[in-house]
Amino acid sequence: MNDSLNYAYSYSYLGDIYISKFEESSVIEDALKAKNYHKTAIKIFETIDTDKEIFVSAKYLSYSILSSIYINLAYKTNNDNYADSCAYYQKIGFDYFKQQHSTHNIVMTGYTYVSYLKYLKKYKEALQYLFSLKQYIHEETSKLSLKDYNSQLKEVYLLLGDYRSAYECFEKETEYKEAHLNDSSMTALAEMKTEQAMMIERMDREKAEAIHIAEKQKMRIIIFSLVAGLALISLLVFYIFRVLKLRKTANAVLAEKNQLLAEQNNKLAEQKEEIESQRDHIEAQSKEIQASINYAQRIQRALLTPDEAIGRVFSDYFLLYKPRSVVSGDFYWVGQFGDNKVCIVADCTGHGVPGGFMSVLGMTNLNYIVSQEIAPDAILNKLREAIISNLRQSNSDENLNAQVYDGMDVAAYVVNEKQMTLSFAGANNPLILIRDNEVQIIKPDRMPVGISIMMKPFNTVTVELRKGDCLYTFSDGFQDQFGYNKDRKFQKSRLRNLLLEIHTRPMSEQRELLNLVFKEWRGPAENQTDDVVIMGVRIN
Question: Which of 91, 108, 140 is at the close of a domain?
């Protein structure tokens, strides 16, 4: 039924089923299946823009459950990678539940983090973290919650060798457990007796009220019958005289109204016919335009380098590509020629259909240019010549003042992993290189690919590469995006700091984090102001 939200919800239910199987059997394969199902649910949730509380809560609950699965796998396999994943997903869930003041989920997610600290043998930190959760435990009045909290404390004290404190927590755990059972029994008995007494009282009261109401109703009927009879006789006499007087006038008015109504009906019929004709014409035009745009999207997608082709060139990369409309003014181009790997990311003038035309023009020319020349500066110089020729632009002073500077901003680089070198040329767009936790900005030439006031040859910058270097090229759509209900852009510096913060993570996680940050900053999808493309490559 193409119901993506409930599709994701169903995957999370399947994950819960395998969690139950794992708790019964302790078979690792069941835990792995539970992990995969919840990760699939999260992936589907992340592709959907919705503010429905039930689905947003379900998404972050999957984050929380996934962190619990990872710590169980870490204990079973002694694999530290599982523990790291637990910490990553636990923080996402915990931050959301804390923002929503969801006390129960805060505590449950907190217990997962305590398990993570115990896995790392950081028992003192686990104890301090449990103390920090106590404020949320007090908000919950149930004895069962207090029993679980003291059970957690008992286990950490045992690991620390503090057996006296562990025994005290054990006594409190037992006390709250018994109190919970007693409270449940006494509450049920009290409710039963109260309900019985209220039922008897209500039956007596209803019986007395019924007798009283019946007597009042009887008198009311007698009085009403007398009054109504007199009123009806008076009304009948008045009505007979009134009808005789009005009938003559009514007939004349009715004939006049019928004539006016017939004329109005004729006019309405003509207007309706004209409106329906206009509506059908507009709908036909809209369908034709939408079909044309969808076809343009298919053409543009066909010209973009496929993911599998990029994967053959760069073994460790990610690509975040988010058009503002159906077609995009941003594009990317990747190819390999011998030991040289070429990567180009471009931002064309405009977005939507105009930007889409420019991107198709750029990709078509690149397919021809790069087959002949792979030096980054030569690629940009030849691409500029082609764009100026295709758009019939002129660099005369008169034309420069009159025309719009259609063109594109481009970042182009060539990687030779055999020689471990990087050659870069840029038209307004830089390249970010992150090495040893430091950000290096390789600056571009300050002119576009297209007609402009400055028309110098583009320059190539060459740097030596090291294994582990991370390269990032992008359009300005991410950094120029205005925040939801915020009168400011994301900004270049914040994007660079974000890339520095996440660059050590796997490339697939980097893409997910960038996408999550962008969506939270942007808000609803209709708020997106420009096309977005970011490409990251790790040198191995």
Answer: 140
